[in-house]
Amino acid sequence: MQRIALIASLLALLVAVPAMAQVGKDWGSGGFESYGTKEGGESGQMAMDRGFEEVDQDADGMVTESELQESYGDQITQERSFNEMDQNADGGLSQEEYQMAGGQAGSEGGESQ
């Protein structure tokens, strides 16, 4: 009887350990580096760590949803709505709206010019 319980326990471990390894694979390891995430963020949202000019690819003074997705990937708009970031609902983020959403002021890492 004890052998059966031991074998059942070992089989349960064989199933559970790989499943736990999959869940924690990128947990706290910066596993989404290509999307610009930073560890330790209080909100748990993706960090928008690029300068406004870098994300505004056509240099029209507005960051569109497609420019945001090209710079950060689709994950950025899955975590927070572009419409929420675009406070005046003009279809693009001004530099002020971009900064309020967590983005950097300029390409020099947030220094004002």
From TrEMBL:
Keyword check for Glycosyltransferase: no
Pfam families linked: EF-hand_5 (PF13202)
Keywords linked to the UniProt accession: Signal
Biased composition (Gly residues): 103-113
One Gene Ontology term of the molecular function aspect: calcium ion binding
Domain of life: Bacteria
Database matches in InterPro entries: EF-hand-dom_pair, EF_Hand_1_Ca_BS, EF_hand_dom
Residue stretches making up the EF-hand domain: 52-70, 81-99
Signal peptide positions on this chain: 1-21
UniProt key word Protease: no
SUPFAM superfamilies the record matches: EF-hand
Region of interest (Disordered), residue spans: 78-113
Protein name: EF-hand domain-containing protein
Organism, scientific name: Desulfocurvibacter africanus subsp. africanus str. Walvis Bay
